[in-house]
Structure formats: structure tokens, C-alpha cells
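Work package 3, deliverable 3.1, input record:
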Amino acid sequence: LEDYQCVVPRWCVGCGDHGVLTAVQRLCRDEKLPPEKTVFVSGIGCSSRFPHYMSTYGFHGLHGRALPIAEGVKIKRPDLNVFVIMGDGDCCSIGTAHWIHAVRYNMNMTAIVLDNGIYGLTKNQASPTSQIGQISNTTPTGSRLEPLNPISVTLGISNASFVAQAADWMPDVTHDIIQQAFRHKGFSFVRILQRCPEFQAHRYDDWVRDPERMLLLKHDNGLHIGPELGRVYRNQELHDPSDRNRAREIASGHDPIPVGILYKNPNIPCYEELQVPDTMNTSEGVSDFLEAEFDKVTINPKGATI
Ligand code: SF4
């Protein structure tokens, strides 16, 4: 993996981000991604240090703004492999508008949300995915709101083309899911349940200790569940990833927690490939277009535009 490794990560010991970083570096190695053709874009948060730890190109952006930066990169350089790394606060709070429209635009990139249910970098504030009753600096008597489910929200956007869920304590499965996401042509949305031992020490303990409480979604072109993994994670379901209604039902389940590819539609066009008239590719072309449109407008004698 050394081709893709950079400095030693500064995340806390036991942080789930370490496992995700390794899974992503394995993916880069397996797919033989040229570092000079690969870019990681992030916002702000613990996980957003990700680009610093990859020996590819990277952009450590503003809080909640990773997606528009990545879209700018992709529209200008569609030949690059673009990955977007966000936290739950980053994507599901301040970045929500960008998230919804990124799914709608369906540009060819892989978006990974490391969801630990807390703001870790700023030291323990509730996030949109915090659980009811969760104690934090901003919810000293416990969070009172139903947490937002990033998978259900994404599935609710009609242009969604790839939606998956992984867990940091299942590194092989996480690697497989990220690989499928990368190979999908379009906007791939992967939520990774991520442990934060610093501020959410026990949130996923029950699921980590009991593999039966994880539901593996299988399908022909989906996860590669070898015999060893199959013996550990015996709770499996054959799932058709084109079935959005079933995906919605599965996504709403909290126990067991589903992991795998919930939904995939390879037929949605990518925004960067939608045909734009050649004449619109230059500023002169845009001016000519606007002038022609203006000429179509007539003004009646009373001044109202028709
Ligand atoms: Fe990881 Fe939590 Fe530490 Fe941030 S605060 S690096 S999320 S363990």
C-alpha cells in the first residue's frame, strides 16, 4: 500500500477512520489508480484529514463544501478519479443542500460519509445522526431528535444511482463496497458506520461483538462473501439492488444493521456527459446564445415583456 500512503494519521487510537483509510488504500492499489490521476476532496472534520494521508492529489476544503469542490474538479477534469470524504456533520448538516444536488447531478465520483454520530474534531457536539438520548456538549440532557438516516434520504432522491452502507469494523466488506462504488459510473454514495472511541465509545459495541446483528446483502455482482466471512456473518439476505422499495425497507432497519449495496441504477446519465451544444463551450458562444434569446423577447408598448 506504500504507493498510496503518506504521513502517519493523527486520528485517535482505535478510531474507525484508520480502517477506512486502509480499505481505500487497498482499493487504489487493486484498481491500480495512478496517484497523479486521483484526487481526494474533503470538508472539515476528523475524517476530512483524509487527503493528507493519501499520496494522491487532494483538497482539504471548507466545512460542508467538499461536494461542490469535487464537482468543479470533475467538470474540468473528467479524466480524474474523484473521491469525496465527508463526516456526518459535514454532509448531513451544513452540507445537506450540496448532498441532495450532488445525488441529483449524478457526476461520476465516489462519495464516502464516515458517520460517527458526533462532531469529534470540535470535541463532542450532537450531529444530525446522533441517537435519541445521546449526551454531548450541546445536548447535556440527551438529544431529543430522531436521527437523520443518510441512506433513506439518499434513496428518496429520484436520481440516486448507487447507495451503499458499510461498517469500519468489517474491513473486507468495506473494501468490497468501496470497490463496487468506484466501479459504478455515476455518483456513488457510501455511508460507513464509524466508531469514535473518544466521544462515542460504546455506540456500536453490541453489533461489533455479535456478527449476527449485521445483515449482509448479497447479490450476483455485489459483495464477495467468501466462506470465512460467510461463517462469521451468517445473517445474509439475497437482495436485488434494482429494487428501490425493498432498499428503503432495509435502510429503515436499525437492528440488524444492513451492510452492502442497497440500490444501484447504472442507466442514469452523468451530468458531465450530458450534451451541451458546441457553441456553448466558449464565452463568445454563450454571449451569442444570450443575444439570440434576447432578440426573441419583444416589448409591448406598455413596457410589459412578452
Ligand atoms: Fe476518531 Fe473520534 Fe478521535 Fe475524531 S475524536 S479522531 S472521530 S476517535
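The chain has a mean pLDDT of 92.
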